[in-house]
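Let us practice reading a record.
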Amino acid sequence: MVDAEKLSIARGQLGPKCASCESPLIFAEALVIDSEYHCFSCYEKVTGASSASEPKEVSGLRMD
């Protein structure tokens, strides 16, 4: 059975709350650690992981 205390409505969609900071998430952005949902910033704190890529300029690509 789903625990209603762990659910919220974020941007008009039903989704989980972050297990660490309890911010509302949508399922598409939630990251799972040991059957608990986490937001990206809490995921980084819990796992120590960071982005594997750095932003870079791409010539000839208009981003307007």
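A brief commentary: The helical segments are 40-47.
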